[in-house]
Amino acid sequence: MDRSQTETEGHGATRAPEPAVGAAPAEAPDFLAEQVRAWEDAEGLVGSSLGTMVVEASPLERELAGELDAVRQRLAYYERFDSLINDSIQRSADLFQALFTEREAQRRSGASMVAEVSASAEAEAERRMAAERRQMHETLMGLMTEAGRMQRQVDGLIQQIAEAVTDLSTRGGSSYEDVASGA
Questions:
Q1: Residue 6 belongs to what domain range?
Q2: Nearest to 57 by CA among 18, 13, 91, 109
Q3: Number of domains present in the structure of the chain
Q4: Fewest CB atoms within 10 A around its CB: which of 17, 44, 53, 92?
């Protein structure tokens, strides 16, 4: 570290070194620059107070004070960086929580949709089965009516045949055996 960077105007007090051009990354927050200015202001006040009490600091004290300032600056930078990391972690946790909540809402929505579709399909199946039962009942009733009509016709034919046989045998004629033998 350059001694000219740590000495103030002849008071022998030290202040934070000026950041070299390009020493801080382009992404360094303005907060770091504000911290450096605050340290410089505070040390200037303390240095002017101490300057009246202490005539001159030794080179070792100035070097240690410069190193202390550099460490303080790094500490401030790393604390800000740590804060940035913690903020990022918190935002990530919030995003994961929102994602989980959204997924659960979609799962519930999907489950209710499946239940609605299932209920609708069951109702449609029951409606179709009821329609098929009605149609089967109507068909069977029609067949029963037709069978009853045919049975009445067959009974009527049997009755007519019986009457013809009875009429034939009462008319005096021959019996069935005479007709069958050819006489």
A1: 1-171
A2: 13
A3: 1
A4: 53
Residue-level pLDDT, tens digit, the chain, 183 residues: 444 444 444 444 444 444 444 444 444 456 666 766 776 776 666 555 555 444 477 888 888 889 999 999 999 999 999 999 999 999 999 999 999 999 999 999 999 999 999 999 999 999 999 999 999 999 999 999 999 999 999 999 999 999 989 888 888 655 555 555 655
User: Using CA atoms, how far apart are residues 28 and 63, in angstroms rounded to an integer?
Assistant: 26
Looking at the domain assignment, is residue 110 inside a domain? yes
Residue 155 within any structural domain of the chain: yes
In angstroms, the CA 24 to CA 33 distance is: 10
Which class for 6: exposed (0-12), middle (13-18), buried (19 or more C-beta within 10 A)?
buried
Taking CA atoms, 78 is separated from 44, 74, 135, in Å, by 24, 6, 84
| pTM, two decimal places | 0.35
95 CA to centre of own chain? 12
* Residue 176 belongs to a domain: no
Question: For residue 182, is it left (φ>0), alpha (ψ between -120 and 50) or beta?
Answer: left
